[in-house]
Amino acid sequence: MTPGRAEIIAIGSELLEPWRLETNGAHLSRRLGEIGVPVRFRTIVGDEPADLKDAFRVALGRSDLVVATGGLGPTVDDLTREAVAELLGLPLIDDAGVAAGIEERFRRRGYAMPPSNRRQAQVPRGATVLRNALGTAPGLLLREQGKTIVLLPGVPSEMRRMFDEEALPQLGRAGERYVYRILKIAGLAESEVDHRLSEVWRQAGEVVWTILAAPGQVEIHLKERVVAGAEPRGIARLDAAAAAVLGPDLFARDDDTMEAVVGRLLLERGESVAIGESLTGGLIAARLTGPPGASRYVLGGVVSYTDAAKTQVLGVRPATLEAHGAVSAETALEMAAGARRLLGASWGASATGYAGPEAGGPQAPPGTVFIGVAGPVSTMTRSFNVPGDRDVVRTRAAQSALDLLRRALLGVIA
Amino acid sequence: MTPGRAEIIAIGSELLEPWRLETNGAHLSRRLGEIGVPVRFRTIVGDEPADLKDAFRVALGRSDLVVATGGLGPTVDDLTREAVAELLGLPLIDDAGVAAGIEERFRRRGYAMPPSNRRQAQVPRGATVLRNALGTAPGLLLREQGKTIVLLPGVPSEMRRMFDEEALPQLGRAGERYVYRILKIAGLAESEVDHRLSEVWRQAGEVVWTILAAPGQVEIHLKERVVAGAEPRGIARLDAAAAAVLGPDLFARDDDTMEAVVGRLLLERGESVAIGESLTGGLIAARLTGPPGASRYVLGGVVSYTDAAKTQVLGVRPATLEAHGAVSAETALEMAAGARRLLGASWGASATGYAGPEAGGPQAPPGTVFIGVAGPVSTMTRSFNVPGDRDVVRTRAAQSALDLLRRALLGVIA
Q1: What does each C-alpha distance from A25 to A21, A30, A44, A47 come to in angstroms?
Q2: Do the Cβ atoms of B18 and A29 come within 8 Å?
Q3: What is the helix (H) or strand (E) element at residue B68, kind and residue range?
Q4: What's CA A230's distance to the chain center, in Å?
Q5: Which is it for strands B347-353 and B368-374: parallel, antiparallel or unpaired?
Q6: Cα of A71 to nearest chain B Cα, Å
Q7: Which residues of B touch A210 (CB under 8 A)?
Q8: How far apart (Å, rounded) are the C-alpha atoms in residues B51 and B15?
Q9: pLDDT for A54-86, tens place per residue?
Q10: How far apart are CA A193 and CA A190, in angstroms?
Q11: What is the pTM of this model?
Q12: How far is B210 from chain A (nearest CA, A)?
């Protein structure tokens, strides 16, 4: 029988420290999703026996399948086996096969088995042992009171191999699976996206959707449960409906990125781009050169952090700086046109502004940004104010400059 | 009263998906550790109302302080406020001050407040509102039945600022606290750092230490429990011992970064820098311009992604490209010298190489990198090969170029 609701417990006091990221859960979520089992909770708990038992007690109370990682090693703070056995009222029994396997492993490496490793051969009565191809800690699978418990080692490589090869085949397939899709949107606030798509969501049916905001980007995450062999029709329907409403504001799907989209548009046209940037300090160029093969369409760029760099390298006219200032639509346009001319590119893109904390006076607070695009037949500029810290302002300015270039390449702006 | 046991809940169905890492918990663990409050559990839960309520019910049953992130936004799947109010039996009341703040925020950006944002002004009775300096979602602090609940937005920058400035001062301090220190090391592999410091670790005593590796950087994380008013003597002792062994390979501590260190060295000397970069595509300039006030020492840079950009903008000699190729020590040096000259800077720094997947033939596989520095009195260059994908190669190349510049500024290399 396939479990209906799963829960993941990551065990280890070090995982509660600020410098550690727990990554095993992501692998387990994906694998469980692929056999149609939704993960509803993920908990991190330390090696404290009372906390450990509490975590399992809570998980078994609300989930059908509990997959735990860590705490199966030979040291005194590895207490997962004991906690689970005690919670379920099962005695720990020496497993001769497991003990022999661990001894053999040490012998092959020329060591005698340390006495501490003997504990790893203790198995709750009725448990199935999961072989560890890469380490000494065996895993365990228990079925008790209609629940399934899988205990895995915490070392990621050991955990992955054991779960995929030993545990997963015993969990069965639901005959169903999850299909995921991400829609990426630029130029709209999260609440605006939500508002525009309110009609679309009414038809969401069984498709689960979530909206997420990042600087200069809103993401819609769709997830659909489909029976084996079937297509994700709900996702296809919602994607088409959202695309119709959003038009060119919907710029990418799944792992695709703004810079990759811009790159493909340039490649399709056999065109190239050059960047002139100020407050973004190289971020626009760094993003455009991120995708493999970017050298086929990025010629280069200039980071002009001073007025002198703007005039002497990018060819911005001193009179423009004098009349409008370095943070102005006029300067943004001349930077884009200057980068295009300097590097002989089809397109130039630019950003200038105040990233903060310094600003340009009461009329131009931190977050004031001007972006520009100069193309084969026209130029365009946009301005906006970004609330947020220096990093957010820079990230958002770079994203918006790339998006303006994308819209210009698509011909969807005047 | 300072809470004795804390628990963190991260809310959002997307955080249960395989493609998302939950990072807010790390910041909260650290800040709570600094006021002596241990985090015992961290739970990730989706937007499902029943699951959300269950997570809070469980947490309030075993912890004195519950800090939750996410689910405070304006969309229909942001349900944290409602879940907590319902669980505690508190009515939600419109807060006129909060509503006015959100409306003002939209007005300043030239929008009318979408109706969906009105929900964000609903506050459980008796809750203290935590101001959001960077976004619309206000936070909440509740004290009920001897427990403290803090609700924060999920956007990391908003969450961090709100917790540090608005919530933390209301939580009080315990008689003990954890002190953390991070030592950052460049130019050495993780195993080399571990080996060199083996004698230092023998004196670690009660100080917990961990080594972590990132591209171009190794970090040592130290943690010590000290009573109120006392100094972290163990950390001070280990820091001094490690610094003596590592010398200039130890480049920064805690939140300090390579680019900030380089910036301070330039500022102290009243000097400036210009960048000429190829495979890093703007990453070096983007990092150098990251710290606030970078315009005092960064003049600008050139991303020369083609031979023409190298010769025509940076002044690399065609004969050099002809004889040695674009990926060579000679080209790296001329790029650094060219950037310095073009922008009139005290220093020039450069990177050229094959980021991959394309390479320069059997002698120059992907990951081949040359970096250069040109200063007031001398020039220097280094080369190395980075195993890893395109992102890793670019990140490591940028880090190494900044590190070479740092060592040149310190005068510790010939």
Answers
A1: 10, 9, 10, 18
A2: yes
A3: strand B65-69
A4: 27
A5: antiparallel
A6: 15
A7: 12-14, 47, 77
A8: 14
A9: 999 999 999 999 999 999 988 778 899 999 999
A10: 5
A11: 0.82
A12: 9
